[in-house]
Design a protein that fits this description.
By secondary structure, this protein is of the alpha/beta class. Helices cover 46% and strands 15% of the residues. The protein is built from 19 helices and 20 strands. The strands form eight sheets. Strands 12-20-14-15-16 form a five-stranded mixed beta sheet, with helices on one face. Helix 10 runs parallel beside helix 11.
Amino acid sequence: IADARDKGDLSENAEYAAAKEAQGMLEMKIAKLEDVVARSRVIDESKIENLLRRKVRVFTPGVNLSPINILERFSSPSSQNEQDILEKATSLTASLLSLTKTKGDDAVNSPQGLLLSQIFIESWKIGEDLTPDKLLEKVVEPPFSKLGILPLETVISKDKRISFAVELNGVISSPLMAYFRKGEELNFDKLFSDPKNENIFTLSQISDEQREFFLGIFLSELYQWVRRQSGSDRLKMALIFDEVFGFFPPYPKNPPTKQPLMGLLKQARAFGFSVILATQNPYDVDYKGLTNAGLWFIGRLQTQNDIERVKEGLSAISGGNQAITLLPQLKQREFVLNDVRREKPIVFKTRQCVSLLVGPLAEAQLKAFIKDEENTERKKESNEIVITPKEIKVLYGTERNLFPHFLFEAEIPYKLSKDLFWKRKIFLSRIREEGVGSTFSSFEELTNPETPFSESKPADSSLSSLPHWINSIKKENVEKEIKDALSIKLQLEIYKDGVTGLVSEPEETLENFILRASKERQKFEEQKIQKDLAPLLKKKQEKEIVLERSNVKLERLKNEYEKRKAETYTTAGVGILRGIFGSKRSILGGVSSTMSKERMSENAKSKYEEEKIINEKIKNELEEISKSIDLLKSGGVKQINPDEIERIKIFPFRSGIRILSLAIVFK
């Protein structure tokens, strides 16, 4: 356009018109590209590769394919915490009783339930694990003489205990339960030893009673395992439960699965553990319990009963009432997403997809799948290794399939007010073919930096090739790219309370900051109350003095009025006597005197009434002041909503970033 302007009159300048048109086209293209970028999401290829490298294990409780052993031994909780012992004893008792004649929503409180749970509690308190034979011995001859506050024999006689032991023996020894006594023990430390593993428990091959029995024990053990982990605000693991129908029913139903599921919904998120429940039977779900869920996906509902039950549950959660209004509008493949962290629910439509799922896998299909998973290894991509710069060390992991990464440790400074705060972290970044800049476009922090690496290549490992640019890159160039990436991506979030001006400490959690901010607001509010109280207390004191004076004056005027009234009556009486016995002159004098006294009495009454009104007004004013004082004193600090807290992003101090170590790691 600038070149076209130089060529003369714009009104007759064809080059200028063409340039303007080209500019318009470019602006339109830019706007279109900006729109595409705004709606796009960059996919980290390393995450896809991680997904492909995941190890999937399939377990078949109760079936001789990949069974889980839960009946061979009843182990005491590893924590030896009294609450854990009580909860595990109750859950295990409920699960065992679900297979007996004593089953029911209140089976745990039956004589048999009380006996069984007390045996578990007494044994586990002394660290004794119970085998099935020891358990049956103790059912017949318990190691205690009382059950609760009553004698044992009163609650459940020996004959009934023997009968109960025989029934339990039949359950535990039944051929249908044989594969609950074989296979790998239920050990969550082992199952979750590698966060990349996926463990699938398929229960399609067993009866409803056996599912309830297994899941009661499984969920109870999982709940206790989760509570032993360290707290985390990042998602580390998840339980996906499909289908939850029958295992989380509304009150008064209480299967052995319900309490541990409720515990997980309430507490698991604090440990970085997510619970995902799915059902196609929304009517028979405990929505009171599901109010602990923060994220809901609701598809099109078929019956009015289902709609009413879902409405009942949604009405008790944040944004639920808005979500209710969207339910009748849903079409095929449309869902309402209600997230307590969003301002309002949204409707979204799933993409077209092809599903090869034809229903639950038959036993033969499961067998083939499990065998395939056990024998299949990913083919190695290449054994070619490009020579790396001498100053960069090369290390190897212990996995079968290894991919090249940069492993680096850095100290990152953040400027908070006038001070520098340092964070020391270890990162892993997948080495990419495109170059060093692309390599550090994404990286992950190692939360477990003690992962063992060796300088020796494992003999049976498959190594992916290094890109050729590695051979020509210098260590200082790599470090520069790392610093650039860290200074942009590693923002530190701190919190600020707009009411008190309080700012969070580095790495302080939002929960802890809210606690501190609440205390500061309490002090702030107390100071404000004291400041507002001072003039009110002074005003109250002044009004009390005025009221006291008014009371004295009112009492004096009242006495004067009473006195004048009495004098009027006396004078009138004397006048009457004069009228009877006296002369005409004395009668006229008496009348005049009586009228004079009446005027004085009316005058005294008027003054008394006026002062009485003034006195009432002062009392009312004093009462209003007292109410204002009481209101100020009773006013406390409201609970702080996390949305009230301001989030401030702080970028690293680029020139202060220090790279402490750098290596190439195959993992």
